[in-house]
From TrEMBL:
Region (Disordered): 23-61
Single GO term (MF): hydrolase activity
Catalytic activity: Hydrolysis of terminal non-reducing N-acetyl-D-hexosamine residues in N-acetyl-beta-D-hexosaminides
Highest taxon listed in the record's lineage: Bacteria
PROSITE patterns: PROKAR_LIPOPROTEIN
A Pfam family reported for this protein in Swiss-Prot or TrEMBL: Glyco_hydro_3
Range of residues in the leader sequence: 1-18
Organism for this UniProt entry: Nocardioides aestuarii
EC number: 3.2.1.52
Family of the protein in this entry: Belongs to the glycosyl hydrolase 3 family.
UniProt keyword terms in alphabetical order: Glycosidase, Hydrolase, Signal
Name of this protein: beta-N-acetylhexosaminidase
Amino acid sequence: MRLLHPVLALLTVAALVAGCGGDPAPSDSEAPSAPSTSSGPEPAEEPTTDPDTSTSWGPTEGELDRAREVVAGFSPAELAGQVIVGRYDGTDPAVPAAMVRDLHLAGVCVTSGNVADAAQVAATTQAVEEAHAIDGRDWPAVIGVDEEGGTVSHLRGVATEFPAFQAAGTAIAGAGRVGERAVTQAARATGLELRSLGFTWVFAPVADVTIGAADPTIGSRSPSSDPGLASRAVAAAVTGYDDAGLVSTTKHFPGHGGATADSHETLPVLGTSMKQLEARDLKPFEAAVEAGAPSIMMAHLDVEALQPGLPSSQAPDVYDYLRDDLGFEGVAITDSLGMGAALSETFPAIKALNAGADLLLMPVDPAQTHLLVTRAIQSGEVPRERAEEAASRVVALQMWQQRVADEVAVPQDVTARAQAAAARLTALGY
């Protein structure tokens, strides 16, 4: 598993390689050279990475460098918090705010059980941001929500209802580029609406290619059973979310649509061959990476072709494939660590972090997980270098989110625009 950003590592090596040795001694047939007037060897050139250059996943190289400098000064407890997105009960905004402040969490995930109405949601996101700032962090908190459309919409009654993501694949199948534009517009509209409520992340789009009736978990959440259509839908959605200044999370890598068991309850075994995975399940994730996906969610699947016997969220070979073979450089976040498939493993947070996860989503007990990760960093069970790599990616991505959000204003009529985009996608998708 690689610990350093691959592009930066190559750039640094290239910049430091310079000819610093002296001239060879002259041969008998050569006249001696004039004595040098130099007082010493030429100094090595400094690395020349342009801080304004954008990474493949959003932040600039300067933002990534700044993030690295910031997390290098973190205590083990602060580092541990910066790689955890917490869960909480109830609708009192003070509860998640206290958790973020006291445990130094990157942020929280808001679920339907945390939602009363629009005013209460806005009060919650504001309280979390204030707590995050009080803790000394001048970038936004990770405040995420599962708002895919269709059956998985945790802001029902608060935000605009969009059709299930299956409509995206159907729209593209029927209307081609017009359908792709409708998908991008829908993602941008919902992204802006979520920002108006104070969210910085959305756990969408779904990139799983469903196998149909034998798929008990994804179903209409999938854009299509056709890898090509699914790829186009995912890329279009990522573009829309990026345009809105909202962090999207393409999920569930390496593909849950072919699993015949539900990872909320047990660990599904995916016996698909590598050739089949590459031809079907992995295609939409490739498209997401090419479109600039800032974050990818790791599924809890036993993928025999990649690393059998472990949930993919805790399997180093799966993270290595995502980064080395697909070229993903952004934030890798686990699926919820409270799901049955993750709970089948002891200390899933530690295993996921060491395997390559950058964010640990919704552990059952955030305080206990924070304590375990803090101790693991202190003891070296989780190398500090690994923890800093993970935290710096998260911080850099939040700096990107803040910058783009500052550039892209939320319109006054954001709800009307979201409703219009949802209606258009619905019309094309059915």
